[in-house]
Task: structure prediction
Amino acid sequence: MRDSHLVTALREQDLKLVDLASRLGVNKSTASRWARKVPAERVLDIERTCGIDRTVLRPDLYPPASPAPVPESVS
Result:
């Protein structure tokens, strides 16, 4: 089963794995393997060429930013 993070993000931009492969100059079979897990060394390339945020592609490596803590008011 494919990790839908990449496929879903591509679909939201009306792109397919073949489009990703073409943009990055790799075989479609290579891009298909990335549907399971995007290699760490390709995350930034995909973010740059397709506009898919790195936190979507590999949240294990790039966790979403936590909201800044609200300072307690001093009374």
In short: The chain has a mean pLDDT of 89. Residues 4-57 form one domain. The chain is about 50% helix and 0% strand.
